[in-house]
């Protein structure tokens, strides 16, 4: 099976021996097999685990299991906790869709932050069948009909050449241990309903269902290439991006019956559905100002153009800072970190600098956006203050409050970044070492 995966990876140019890879690992049977195959192939990889907090202690046990798995393979381990239900409620989407959006956003941020070459996930042929059927029930374009691609930018899926039965054979032979997600058995989720109730019926009609669907998906993929070549020419004519904002020239779009499909292909990378795309077309002859939202982006019709901006998803995730880290570069924030002895250290005044007592900090530190209920002890004071009240006192505009981030040490807020240090972490005459953080 190792040779089969390697041949598949070479066919689609998924990775090279020199690539640094982030493996997305839940702890389930598929991702456990993925880790073992990466190790067998002697690839350089780290493990990333997303804890969505949906199953309480079971979710935390999954995280601990994956952490031990990373130790087994002697690779780096990264984890992130998400307030998935809050994000799902805000965007009015399913919990599964919320989890998918959050984890892939985090994986890509992690890849950029740590300079990795690939993100690898453990999808296999059975996932392709489920995805195509699910997409058909929801309505889909060509990408939905070819299911899951082996490669999508930096994201790769080397197990797409395997069936679920192959996965079970492998863990049996290698005697691997994995975690069972209890939510996989419930048919409340749409994908599970297809997996447990629909696919077994289809396999009665065609026992070779996975292979047949995979072949059909390959044909659709070839047809999609032709469509994409045309759409790319249109994209080059009508789309431009400046300072993170994308502009689409309405007048440059072709006037044909295929316009809904063409515009959908242009807007789909920003999360807009075909139905929403048709609504956007309906505003072309109307006045400016109509706004549309996807899970990840906002689109506004402004005179003869569409203006597309990304939403800020950082409120539902965080970034870690390690003890020996020198710099942190994330969207909208760049920090330099310097570890110094306290002898003769002179504090630099200003909101863009924080000098903290190094020995009072517990690493890894975390940076996240503030949330309701957060409190700290403002520098120079001994009592607690809610951050919401602090931001009111600081007269921070309402539309900028959600951009305010905090530095935490073991869940205690040490610095409202760019505003105020916490009195508990300040430098005193007893301080021996200093962590100086500067906003660049």
From TrEMBL:
Keywords: ATP-binding, Cytoplasm, Ligase, Nucleotide-binding, tRNA processing. Its main location: cytoplasm. Ligates lysine onto the cytidine present at position 34 of the AUA codon-specific tRNA(Ile) that contains the anticodon CAU, in an ATP-dependent manner. Cytidine is converted to lysidine, thus changing the amino acid specificity of the tRNA from methionine to isoleucine. ATP binds at residues 26-31. One of its GO terms (biological process) is tRNA modification. NCBIfam families: lysidine_TilS_C, lysidine_TilS_N. Its EC number is 6.3.4.19. Belongs to the tRNA(Ile)-lysidine synthase family. Coiled coil: none annotated. This is tRNA(Ile)-lysidine synthase. One of its GO terms (molecular function) is tRNA(Ile)-lysidine synthase activity. It catalyses: cytidine(34) in tRNA(Ile2) + L-lysine + ATP = lysidine(34) in tRNA(Ile2) + AMP + diphosphate + H(+). The N-terminal region contains the highly conserved SGGXDS motif, predicted to be a P-loop motif involved in ATP binding. GO terms for cellular component: cytoplasm.
């Amino acid at each position: 099976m190792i040779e089969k995966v390697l041949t598949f990876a070479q066919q689609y140019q998924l990775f090279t021996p020199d690539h640094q890879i982030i493996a997305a690992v839940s702890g389930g049977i598929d991702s456990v097999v993925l880790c073992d195959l990466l190790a067998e192939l002697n690839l350089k990889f780290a493990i990333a685990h997303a804890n969505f907090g949906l199953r309480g202690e079971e979710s935390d046990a999954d995280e601990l299991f994956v952490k031990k798995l990373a130790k087994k393979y002697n690779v780096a381990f990264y984890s992130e906790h998400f307030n998935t239900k809050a994000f799902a409620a805000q965007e009015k989407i399913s919990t599964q869709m919320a989890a998918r959006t959050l984890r892939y956003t985090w994986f890509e941020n992690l890849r950029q932050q740590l300079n990795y070459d690939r993100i690898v996930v453990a999808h296999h042929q059975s996932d392709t069948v489920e995805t195509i059927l699910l997409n058909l029930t929801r309505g889909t374009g060509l990408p939905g009909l070819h299911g899951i691609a082996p490669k999508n930018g930096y994201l790769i899926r080397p197990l797409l050449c395997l069936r679920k039965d192959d996965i079970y054979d492998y863990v049996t032979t290698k005697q691997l241990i994995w975690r069972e997600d209890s939510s996989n058995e419930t048919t409340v989720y749409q994908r599970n309903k297809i997996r447990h109730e629909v696919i077994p019926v289809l396999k009665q009609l065609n026992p070779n269902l996975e292979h047949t669907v995979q072949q059909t998906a390959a044909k659709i993929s070839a047809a999609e290439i032709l469509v994409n070549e045309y759409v790319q020419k249109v994209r080059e004519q009508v789309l431009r991006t400046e300072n993170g904002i994308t502009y689409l020239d309405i007048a440059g779009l072709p006037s044909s019956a295929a316009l809904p499909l063409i515009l959908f292909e242009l807007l789909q990378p920003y999360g807009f559905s075909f139905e929403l795309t048709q609504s956007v077309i309906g505003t072309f002859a109307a006045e400016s100002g109509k706004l549309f939202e996807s899970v990840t982006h906002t689109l506004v019709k402004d005179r003869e153009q569409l203006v597309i901006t990304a939403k800020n998803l950082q409120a539902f995730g965080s970034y870690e800072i390690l003890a020996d880290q020198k710099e942190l570069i994330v969207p909208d924030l760049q920090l330099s970190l310097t570890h110094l002895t306290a002898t003769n250290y002179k504090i630099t005044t200003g909101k863009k600098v924080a000098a903290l007592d190094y020995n009072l900090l517990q690493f890894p530190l975390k940076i996240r956006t503030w949330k309701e209920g957060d409190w700290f002890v403002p520098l120079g004071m001994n009592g607690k203050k809610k951050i919401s009240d602090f931001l009111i006192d600081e007269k921070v505009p309402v539309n900028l409050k959600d951009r305010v981030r905090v530095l935490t040490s073991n869940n205690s807020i040490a610095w409202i970044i760019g505003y105020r240090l916490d009195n508990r972490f300040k430098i005193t005459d007893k301080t021996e070492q200093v962590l100086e953080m500067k906003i660049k």
